[in-house]
Design goal:
The protein has a single domain, classed as Ferritin, core subunit, four-helix bundle (Ferritin, Up-down Bundle). The protein is mainly α. Helices cover about 65% and strands about 5% of the residues. Bound molecules: fe (ii) ion (2 copies).
C-alpha cells in the first residue's frame, strides 16, 4: 500500500534534485554527425521551446487548488517543478547553441498547446495535460538518446528522463487524490476523456517528430505501443483502472488502498529509474 508523498516531501525532493544533477561534458562539443543533425535538431528546437514555458496559468490554477485543499506547500512544490522544466529548456537551449542551431520562438505544436492551456482554469485538466505530454516525453527523450552518439546530448536526455519519472509521479499522485471520491461511472468518463486526449496528442507527437523517433528505434508501431503501455501504467496509478480508496493516516499522509494491486511496473523504465527506487 504505497503512501503518497506530501507537498513538503516534494519540495525536499526538488531541492535535493537541483543539487544532484548529472555532470554534462560540455567541453566535448555537440559532436553530432550530419545524419544525427538531420534526425534530431529540428525536433529538439520544438521541444526546447516547449520546456521553457513560464507556466503563469498553471501557477494561477495551483494557487487556487492549494487554497481549496489547504495545502500551501503545494504551490512551492509546483514552482520547483516548473523551475526543473525550465532547466530542461536551458539544457536543450545550450545544446542547440553548441551545435550552431538557433533557439526558435514559435512552433505550431507549441502554439496550439499554449493556446489550449491559456484557457484552462481547472487543476485537474492542467495536471492531465501535463501527464499526457510527459508520458510522451519519456518515449521521445529515450529515442533521442538512442539516435545519437553525442555524449553531451545523451547525458542531457538521461538527466531529463531521470527528472521526468518523478514529475509523472508528482502529477499522478495528485490526480489519484482528485479521482478517488468518484463513482464508477465518473471514473470511466474521466478515463475515456483522457484516452481521447492521449490518442490525439500521441498522433500529434508522431506527426511532428517521427523522424527523430524512427532514428531512435521507434517506428510507428513501437512508438504507439510503448506510449500506450506507459500511459496504461499511469492510469492504474491514478486509480482510473481499478477501484481505489484514499485514506489519511495519523502522519497526515494520503495512502491509497487497493489501487495498485494490478499496477505492474512497465517492462522498461526509461532512463533506468522508477518512482519506487527514488
Ligand atoms: Fe521536462
Ligand atoms: Fe516534466
Amino acid at each position: 500500500m504505497p503512501a503518497f508523498l506530501t507537498s513538503h516531501e516534494w519540495v525536499q525532493h526538488y531541492r535535493t534534485n537541483a543539487v544532484n544533477q548529472l555532470s554534462i561534458p560540455w567541453e566535448e562539443g555537440a559532436a553530432l554527425s550530419p545524419e544525427e543533425t538531420r534526425a534530431v535538431i529540428d525536433s529538439l528546437q520544438a521541444w526546447q521551446l516547449g520546456e521553457t514555458s513560464e507556466a503563469t496559468h498553471l501557477l494561477v490554477a495551483t494557487r487556487r487548488y492549494a487554497s481549496v485543499v489547504a495545502d500551501p506547500e503545494f504551490v512551492e512544490a509546483m514552482q520547483l517543478f516548473i523551475i526543473e522544466e525550465q532547466r530542461h529548456g536551458e539544457l536543450l537551449g545550450r545544446f542547440l547553441d553548441l551545435s550552431g542551431a538557433s533557439r526558435i520562438k514559435r512552433n505550431w505544436g507549441d502554439s496550439v498547446f499554449r493556446f489550449l492551456r491559456s484557457g484552462l482554469r481547472s487543476m485537474e485538466i492542467w495536471t492531465t495535460v501535463v501527464i499526457v505530454v510527459e508520458t510522451l516525453a519519456l518515449i521521445y527523450y529515450q529515442a533521442v538518446m538512442q539516435a545519437t552518439r553525442s555524449s553531451v546530448l545523451r547525458t542531457i536526455c538521461r538527466q531529463i528522463l531521470r527528472d521526468e519519472v518523478h514529475h509523472l509521479q508528482f502529477q499522478y499522485e495528485h490526480l489519484a487524490v482528485m479521482h478517488a471520491g468518484r463513482g464508477m461511472f465518473a471514473r470511466r468518463l474521466t478515463l475515456w476523456s483522457q484516452r481521447i486526449l492521449f490518442f490525439g496528442t500521441t498522433l500529434a507527437v508522431w506527426t511532428a517528430h517521427h523522424g527523430t523517433l524512427r532514428a531512435g528505434g521507434y517506428p510507428f508501431r513501437r512508438f504507439w505501443r510503448a506510449s500506450w503501455n506507459r500511459m496504461e501504467f499511469h492510469w492504474r496509478r491514478m486509480g482510473l483502472k481499478s477501484r481505489i480508496r484514499t485514506v489519511q493516516t495519523k502522519l497526515g499522509r494520503t495512502r491509497i488502498q487497493r489501487a495498485t494491486a494490478s499496477a505492474k511496473t512497465p517492462k522498461q523504465w526509461h532512463g533506468g529509474v522508477s518512482p519506487s527506487n527514488r
